[in-house]
Amino acid sequence: MNAISKALSEVYYNIPMEIINLGFNDNPIYATQSIDETIIARVIRPRVLMDCNIVGGVEVYINLLYCNILDYSTNYGNEYLIEVPKNVTNNRSLVSVLSLFYNNSKFGIEDGSSGELAPILMKQMRTASPPTLISTTRLELIAENKVLVSDPSTIIVGGIMKCVLENEDNLSNLSPRSYLSFGKLVTLAVKAHIYNYLRVKLGSGYIQSGHEIGVVNDVIADYSSANEDYYQYINEVWAKVMFHNDSERLSNHINGML
Asked: What is the reported pTM?
């Protein structure tokens, strides 16, 4: 069992199968797919997983020794473009960049493979001589895995960048204890999709084939608030669930409170 398969089972427990078929089975583009595959293709991947990356993601520290650093410095100040190769991020994209720690040297970190995202880098960074340790938050993610550093006092040779990455494929980084919460999020997204997809067709008498239009209308009407409920749930509940699933971010938060 994984997060997506559990979420699909929650969808089937909460939404009548007749309604699911009406909302997902009438498009010839998906005729060769199962209902599971269609829900994943039309709702879970384009909406839910993308939103999970926006409000969640995984906090990591990236060693700049494994990145490409382009110097755009001029007489008016220092600017650098940091390109993070996909092999460094395990083929995932950056969601946001939080801070950059550097000391105009390479921190003495020469070992380790280029694909590692090792939390030990941060511990090694903290042992650097305090007078030489510098940080900046003047960072901007301008393209996929490309970070612009605009800081007049910055001269980057080596360092560590604190970033947030996309979640792993199919949310494999999610704790099984959070599967029920993810199932509720997906269920709300599917209800919102069904309401938006069927409300006009129901109003125009599109659905026939023996279905009781009045009963179907009543069920669909109950989903009218699903989209609003989805946004409320993902911001007020799911963001906290993702925060507690990210052990690195949670540990940093606790350390900051001590």
From this structure: 0.80
